[in-house]
Amino acid sequence: xxxxxxxxxxxxxxxxxxxxxxxxxxxxxxxxxxxxxxxxxxxxxxxxx
Length: 49
Hints:
The chain is built from one helix and no strands. It starts with a helix and ends with a helix. It has one domain (1-49). The chain is mainly α. It is 96% helix and 0% strand.
């Protein structure tokens, strides 16, 4: 019985870790897109002068 509980807890922990990785990867992509937008805006401002 204890082994089953331990196995279930380990499986849930693994799934939680995988979900966390996807969350951080998504956040990284969002931050990258924000940086690209800022970079494009800066280039537009430079071109206007």
